[in-house]
Design brief:
The structure holds two protein chains of two kinds. By secondary structure, chain A is α/β, with parallel strands linked by helices. Chain A contains eleven helices and ten strands. A six-stranded mixed beta sheet of chain A has the order 6-7-8-3-9-10, sandwiched between helices. In chain A, a hairpin with a 2-residue loop joins strand 1 and strand 2. The two termini of chain A are 21 Å apart. The chains are: A alpha/beta, B mainly alpha.
């Protein structure tokens, strides 16, 4: 992974649906329909589930993010937006300690999940079981669809007789069950890009996490597959706390309840410049840099 | 390309296009010729061995013991068994060390110790096989006071280690980092990630590496000369001198008797067929084992 977090220059993967005028028409309508009520839906966010307190991350001597203080509410979607290199992915990867995998990375400050600091925990496996992650590009294992979903559950000792039920439940929650129920034994690579990404979401849900991190989950997908993931995210926030990094501001506006804006300062360290209810951030930004970024004059 | 260099004066577009097409043709033709030559070389070797060896092959060749000079018939059954036995013994040593070494280098290879291991593996791969044979003679044959299949297997096993290690490292490094991340992010430990995701994804390539190593050592003669030694009779104990196909071929080939020389050709043919069959079986067995590295989107 690059120190600069998500670089989204990725060619779109195969489409879920072949280009069909009716489908596109329908899709456009659905997109509009999601976008409109999004504004009204906001404001009803829960108590803080994940909290960052003065978080700094260094790669060697380079400071990647500076003094991030951010509260992420329960059962809602927090979007982190900002230009490339502003430390969005770096911050996201602090929450499930994926930065541990980078040899010279150092994290300072507190990341509280349900009040407990993940950096103080010696049990990184337990943290990652509670805080799931979906990556930029779909990354199913070279195994069957069933085994992909069952993987995490088996690791965490779910008894064999419960696995079938759990796989079905997870695939249903990820809105993939109807498409794959007759081919669970087939390779996950036989699925389209969008289906693979939903499979990755199902695989993540099967571990029964509380928080789901999504690192630009749609950047490798076409608009129709993207729409399905967005619908899925909105359905999932009934049960989970979702934190999504995205380059797509329309996406942040469509799905999120809270938006945090990252920018990098003169020393290239990422900072939080603004956080608030999504409709407020997009309609009445409090920071001139946010306004410049949203309107396309920056980043 | 100098012809397309920035300093070259501008040419009419047609001429440039013509040059490019011509160059394309020439290069394609060149590659075709080289490919054909290579295949031809292989075909000549295999063809010659088939022609010379096929006439001496019959049922007895596979089921009978060697006969003394002058006696008609006889076979290399004991040598066939010996070679299979030696390969199994060698694999017991070479496969686990090779694969584990490969996993170490690929997964934890970012330190000075690993650099040293990697360098040593390269050195080991370059040591002449007869030297490995002498080593096996010194550490196995002398303490045991006799030649044995164990000593031969030991020598061949050492030869297998660097081959399997190298191919395993190569294939394991091809497993995308995103798969490891996916597994770790699901709360898998490093051990579980390697055992359940990385190794299964690399199975096909690792098996190919093992087959390559087996094919390589199956024909080794020099390290067996003073370890397995050879035997004219059946020998079912691993701690006794044992016949091996390459040794039998060697003995027959340097003999002055036309009958034995024909048997050497036949033995060579059998050896080649064995190696090809092993590779084919491995391919078939692992065709679906790793659902496609490189097929990931």
């Amino acid at each position: 992974m690059s120190a600069w977090g998500g670089n989204a220059e990725v060619a779109p993967a195969a489409s879920d649906v072949t280009g069909d005028a009716a489908v596109i028409q329908q899709t456009t309508e659905r997109l509009v329909n999601i976008a409109v009520p999004a504004g009204q839906r906001l404001g009803a966010t829960g108590a803080t589930r994940v909290a960052a307190k003065r978080v700094n991350v260094y790669y060697g001597r380079f400071r990647a993010i500076r003094d991030i203080d951010l509260d992420m509410p329960d059962r809602s979607i927090t979007a982190i937006i900002g230009p490339s290199g502003s430390g969005k992915s770096t911050f996201l990867r602090c929450i499930n300690r994926m930065n541990d995998l980078i040899a010279n990375a150092r994290v300072e400050g507190q990341i509280l999940v349900d009040g407990a600091d993940v950096n103080q925990s010696s049990d990184v496996v337990a943290i990652r079981a509670r805080v799931g992650m979906v990556f930029q590009r779909p990354n199913p294992f070279p195994k069957s669809i069933f085994d992909n979903v069952a993987y995490g559950a088996r690791l965490h000792g779910v008894p064999g007789r419960r696995i079938n039920e759990l796989v079905e439940k997870s695939l249903r929650q990820a809105a993939l069950w109807d498409e794959v129920k007759d081919k669970l034994k087939q390779s996950a690579y036989s699925l389209s890009g969008g289906q693979q990404q939903r499979l990755c979401i199902a695989r993540c849900i099967a571990v029964e996490p509380e928080v789901i991190l999504m690192d630009e989950p749609c950047s490798a997908l076409d608009p129709i597959a993207t729409l399905r993931i967005e619908e899925l995210m909105i359905a999932l926030k009934e049960r989970y706390t979702i934190i999504i990094v995205t380059h797509n501001m329309q996406q942040a506006a469509r799905v999120s309840d809270v938006t945090a804006v990252f920018m990098f300062g003169d020393d290239r360290a990422g900072e939080l410049v603004e956080v608030g209810q999504t409709n407020q951030v997009f309609t009445r930004p409090g920071d001139h840099r946010t306004e410049a970024y949203i309107t396309g004059r920056l980043g | 390309m100098s012809t397309l260099g920035v300093a070259a004066p501008p040419r009419p577009a047609g001429v440039r296009l013509l040059r490019r097409r011509l160059l394309d043709r020439v290069m394609s033709a060149l590659l075709l010729i080289v490919t054909v030559l290579l295949l031809l070389l292989l075909a000549v070797i295999v063809g010659y061995i088939v022609v010379r060896g096929a006439s001496a092959i019959n049922f007895d060749f596979f089921v009978q013991l060697p006969k003394p000079v002058g006696a008609v018939g006889g076979g290399v059954a004991n040598a066939l068994l010996g070679t299979v036995e030696l390969i199994l013994l060698a694999s017991c040593l070479g496969v686990p060390i090779g694969i584990l070494g490969g996993v170490y280098l690929a997964e934890f290879g970012d330190n000075p110790v690993a650099d040293l291991v990697s360098f040593m593996a390269d050195v080991l791969a370059g040591i002449p096989s007869i030297v490995i044979g002498i080593f096996a003679y010194a550490v196995v044959v002398i303490p045991m006071h006799r030649f044995s299949a164990l000593a031969g297997g030991f020598a061949l096993g050492i030869l297998m280690v660097p081959i399997i290690m190298r191919t395993s490292v190569g294939i394991l490094r091809l497993v995308p980092a995103t798969l490891r991340e996916a597994s770790l992010a699901l709360g898998a430990s490093e051990r579980a990630t390697i055992l359940r995701v990385v190794l299964p994804a690399a199975t096909g390539g690792i098996v190919t590496g093992v087959m390559l190593a087996i094919a390589r050592v199956a024909g080794e003669t020099a390290p067996l000369l003073f370890t397995a030694f050879g035997n004219e009779y059946w020998q079912f104990s691993v701690d006794k001198a044992t016949a091996a196909l390459p040794l039998q071929i060697f003995q027959y080939a340097i003999s002055p008797y036309a009958d034995w020389q024909a048997k050497a050709w036949a033995g060579s043919l059998v050896l080649i067929v064995l190696v090809v069959l092993t590779s084919l079986m491995a391919r078939l067995a692992t065709r679906n084992a790793s659902v496609g590295l490189g097929r990931q989107r």
